[in-house]
Amino acid sequence: MTGYLLRRLLQMLPVLFLASFAIFAMIYAVPGGPVAVLVGENASPEEIAATIARYGLDRPMLVQYLDWLGHAVRGDFGLSLHSRQPVLGLIGERLPATLQLAVAAILVALAVGIPVAIASAVRPNSWLDRLLSGWSALALGVPTFWLGILLILLFAVELRWLPSASRYVPFWEAPVDALRSLMLPALTLGIYVSGIFARFLRASLIGEAKQDYVRTARAKGLPESRVVGLHIMRNALLPFVTIVGLMMANFIGGAVVTEAVFTYPGLGRLVIQAISTRDYPLIQGCIMVILVGYMLVNLIIDLLYAWIDPRIEYH
Q1: In the chain, which residues fall in CATH 1.10.3720.10?
Q2: Which of 158, 173, 268, 301 is deepest in the core (most CB within 10 A)?
Q3: pLDDT tier at 34 (50, 70, 90 boundaries)?
Q4: Beta-carbon neighbour count of residue 69 at 10 Å?
Q5: Comparing C-alpha atoms, which of 201, 194, 200, 196 is closest to residue 112?
Q6: Contact of 90 with 282, CB cutoff 8 Å
Q7: From CA 30, how far away is CA 36, in angstroms rounded?
Q8: For helices 267-276 and 87-122, what crossing angle results, to 10°?
């Protein structure tokens, strides 16, 4: 397992290298580049030339990239063009909020999606299965921004139980306040993702229920709850875990629409703000952090496979 883990970490290096080059090169694909942001629209040619020389933008692109990469490896992504604060510090302020929302949304999706999938798979093609499948389709079809607005109107405006605007409160500092702030955005994301979870897990459960080992377990007289919970469920988890990991990785990238609806201070909103202000160092830093998050989640998923199914061995 250790050797496999080291190989996977080493395999990440060329991917990160190529991705970092592509991220840096996109600056040169944008009309005006960072100079237009640094000097403003009404700058004189002398000011533009002085800015280019000050930031070393007159050097070859490869030289600039290697200089940026050398600093990025040490965790220095430069200063934000807009706020003049370190990029890594700005990302560090938003990343915990995004991770907390992602975990809360995944928990909501699992709490709803797993029971729905099991109830549908136990009695396929029954009226309950059709009803729950219709609910899954509805959960997938409803836009998250519209669902978020409906939840705000119900729980914040009419009932006044929860705040309409969410803020980041660390769960370990104030659990009640954190839950109040997280409830609406987590429900918005969780209900949508629960439809995905329910569909994938249902299909996986039905496929596993047709296997020979399930008929053997039933022939031995095992209770149906044990057959489903111990045998079918465990083998159906492998593809399901992949979907859960992908959704978690997507949330790390930022649930942009949901964060915008609830004014939640997550990484997604930071990326949108950076794009709108053409803050190129901040955009580069955010994309690199999101990419690393994706790769780490995929690595964790692979390691979970061996825990779920002991037959899988990594050498």
Answers
A1: 88-308
A2: 268
A3: low
A4: 15
A5: 194
A6: yes
A7: 10
A8: 130
- Cα–chain-centroid distance for residue 255? 7
In angstroms, rounded to a whole number, what is the distance separating the alpha carbons of residues 134 and 132? 5
Which tokens go with 183? 């409830």
Q: Which tokens belong to 195?
A: 């439809």
Residue type, 37: V
Report d(CA 261, CA 182) in Å as an integer. 13
Burial, 219: exposed, middle or buried (Cβ in 10 Å; 0-12, 13-18, 19+)?
Answer: exposed
Q: Which two tokens stand for residue 237?
A: 């988890």
Distance of alpha carbon 199 from alpha carbon 139, whole angstroms? 11
pLDDT digits (tens, 9 = 90+) for 166-181: 888 888 888 888 888 8
CA gap 114, 188 in Å, rounded: 17
Residue 283 burial by CB count (10 A; 0-12/13-18/19+): exposed, middle or buried?
A: buried
Take residue 277 and report the two structure tokens written for it: 């202000």
- Strand, helix or coil at 79? strand
Report pLDDT digits (tens) over 236-253: 777 788 888 888 877 776
How many whole angstroms separate alpha carbon 109 and alpha carbon 115? Answer: 10
State how far the alpha carbon of 280 is from the alpha carbons of 16, 33, 66, 77, 243, in Å. Answer: 18, 9, 17, 10, 32
* CATH number at 88-308: 1.10.3720.10
